[in-house]
Amino acid sequence: MQNSGRNSRKTDGVTIPPSYIGRFAPSPTGPLHLGSLFAALASFLQARAKKGKWLLRIDDLDSFRNVPGASDTILKTLEAFGLYWDDAVFYQSHKTSHYKTALLQLDQQQLLYPCICTRKGLIQYHKQRPGPAIYPGFCRNQTIPENLPHALRIRTEDIEISFHDQIQGLYSANIQRAYGDFILKRKDQVIAYQLAVVVDDYHQQITEVVRGIDLLDSTYKQIYLQQKLGLPPLRYMHIPVIVDQLGCKLSKQTFATAVGPKTASFTLHRLLVLLNQSPPEELSKAPVLQQLNWAIENWNPDQLKKIRAISQ
Predict the structure, then answer these.
(1) Closest alpha carbon to 203 in 44, 75, 17
(2) Other CB atoms closer than 10 Å to residue 213's CB: what's the count?
(3) pLDDT tier at 3, thresholds 50, 70, 90
(4) Average pLDDT of 19-34?
(5) Which residue ranges make up each domain of the chain?
(6) What's the chain's average pLDDT?
(7) Which residues contact 295 (CB under 8 A, 6 or more apart)?
(8) What is the DSSP letter of 155?
(9) 248 pLDDT more than 70
């Protein structure tokens, strides 16, 4: 479902976008589980509490992992929980020209280089050496024949990247020493997550990213790309992740159970409890829209400060 222009206003015939635009960007690799709906709800509440727009983006660039019908299932689940988005759904697979333009811009700055290293080879290399698995730069200054299958990496610099997360606090890291030259385009020609996110957020005019703390490390890389592409900075809010009894993040890889519409009211109340919003117990039996109205009016992300994980 889409609700185009819900929060925009017009002045003298010119549409002025809202001051806040957030988004939820699931991959269509399966149905939503409690952890992914947790992230969706937090980003939705933040956008609505700010009287801004909430956009939906389907991260479907990696066609090898996409599950047929998963996109439609995700949309229907969001609707069942009252999480209605503004504007048309943004599909990455329809925006490939945007990524090509960004790569060209980076290449013109001589920031890209081809890499023929294999994942298996790098794993073996790092097994023999202690410390973080940072790309050792084998191909950084090599001449690679164009006919060889290769990935594209970006040259990072010996600089500090800092940002203030709205609930986790101040973070800072040297992009080169902590993360090294990272991939922007894989050998199979798929655009890497880090570049796609930055380009998509720009084109959707996102002002703040609300997502799980497991993606906090990606923020350094994305800020670095924003700087090199001359894009405006964003605000960030990294919320805790939900973990299972073994302390593992809920995910499709750990076979997290899909959420269903039949128990939407109960599940929504449970999510508000997990978000530390202290919803009244009697609200658990209320329709989802009534629960959401209460949650928007009482939304307080400060209740999540310094929390990194929540047991389901």
Answers:
(1) 17
(2) 19
(3) very low
(4) 95
(5) 9-94+195-300, 97-191
(6) 91
(7) 41, 45, 272, 277, 279
(8) P
(9) yes
Contact 111, 155 (CB under 8 A): yes
Please report where in the chains the tokens 């549409």 appear, as a residue: 15
Q: Which residues contact 148 (CB under 8 A, 6 or more apart)?
A: 114, 116
E strand or H helix at 162: strand 160-165
Statement: residue 17 has pLDDT above 80: no
90-91 and 169-174 as β-strands: parallel, antiparallel, unpaired? unpaired
Distance CA 175, CA 298 (A): 38
Rounded Cα distance, 169 and 165, in Å: 5
- For 229-242, what is the mean pLDDT? 96
CB-neighbour burial class of residue 16 (10 A; exposed 0-12, middle 13-18, buried 19+): exposed
* CATH superfamily, region 9-94+195-300: HUPs (3.40.50.620)
Output the six-digit token pair for 307: 């929390």
Report residue 143: phi and psi, to 5°.
-95, 115
The CATH superfamily holding the domain 97-191 is Glutamyl-tRNA Synthetase; Domain 3 (3.90.800.10)
Residue pLDDT, tens place only, 107-143: 999 999 999 999 999 988 888 888 788 999 999 999 9
Selection from 275, 182, 197 nearest residue 236 by Cα: 197
Residue type for 239, please? I
Query: Tokens standing for 281?
Result: 């117990």
Average pLDDT over residues 286-305: 96
Characterize the bridge pairing of strands 183-185 and 169-174.
unpaired
Provide the whole-model pTM.
0.91
Tokens of 218: 């990606």
Q: Which residues contact 236 (CB under 8 A, 6 or more apart)?
A: 163, 165, 166, 208, 209, 219
Three-state SS annotation for 212-249? EHHHHHHHHHHHHHHHHHCCCCCEEEEECEEECCCCCE
> pLDDT (tens digit, 9 = 90+) per residue, 134-152?
999 999 999 988 889 999 9
